[in-house]
């Protein structure tokens, strides 16, 4: 059943990720946006925790990922880093100067950068500075306008070739792995075979070297009716369970069932009598 959940596993490094890839063992990646979600992902044995800019939409309620500020991302990276004992942590960034800030101030170990051939020179600058970079090709949400919305990429032979060329370009620029998002499974499997670095799939089928999901989505931590991409599998019903708990709390407060005696702190009868006496005349 793979790795058991543990709190005392060894720190995951780039070397660990390379070894998993060499052995053909799927690499597990999950987003986390704050201390509790990172604590959960780390405790459950995720190899990589990604502080993706999906943060903007699922944690900060923004319209799209372009709204989130560097300072906001840094705050969340620091809280994730505090909870992460073993997983390799990665955050989203776009340029060398900010990549350095994310490593130094955000306390992450690597950065993720969306884009293929056009981003290769930037990726090269960052990897040359010694910062590990996770590439991201196929559907790149930051470029949704240029791509005509959230569209599956690589559905034609030419489109698939563009995905492969982008993946090869970011590999050549020094990425240690690359996310393939929303690409037909067969195309992603062929691209994976052509690369020497691992591919991390999201909506790209089981032929990738690893998988990533947005934690809020896979936990089912959202109200009914929200749009979910086809590739998301809901492994839990956190929203439903949380709602039940908050409603039970509301009801118990309203009908004075909570707090009960066991939720209160004791005082000796003698001290209480003394206090009651002292306030009589007030
Ligand atoms: O921002 C993000 O969370 C991501 C993953 C979904 C890959 O880019």
The strands making up the biggest β-sheet line up spatially as 1-2-3-4-5-6-7-8
Percent helix, as a range, is: 40-55%
Instruction: Outline the low-pLDDT stretches.
Output: none
Going by helix content, strand content and strand pairing, the class is alpha/beta
> What portion of residues belong to β-strands?
5-15%
GO cellular component, one term: mitochondrion
Pfam family, one: Pantoate_transf
GO biological process, one term: pantothenate biosynthetic process
Catalytic activity: (6R)-5,10-methylene-5,6,7,8-tetrahydrofolate + 3-methyl-2-oxobutanoate + H2O = 2-dehydropantoate + (6S)-5,6,7,8-tetrahydrofolate
What are the key terms here?
8-stranded parallel beta barrel; single chain; 3-methyl-2-oxobutanoate hydroxymethyltransferase; transferase; binds 3-methyl-2-oxobutanoic acid; elongated; 282 residues; pantothenate biosynthesis
Structural notes for this entry:
The protein is of the alpha/beta class and 282 residues long. 40% of the residues lie in helices and 13% in strands. It is built from eleven helices and eight strands. The chain has an eight-stranded parallel barrel with strand order 1-2-3-4-5-6-7-8, surrounded by seven helices. Strand 3, helix 5 and strand 4 form a beta-alpha-beta unit. Helix 2 crosses helix 4. The termini are far apart. The model has no long low-confidence stretch (mean pLDDT 94). 3-methyl-2-oxobutanoic acid binds next to loops. The site of 3-methyl-2-oxobutanoic acid has 10 residues, from loops.
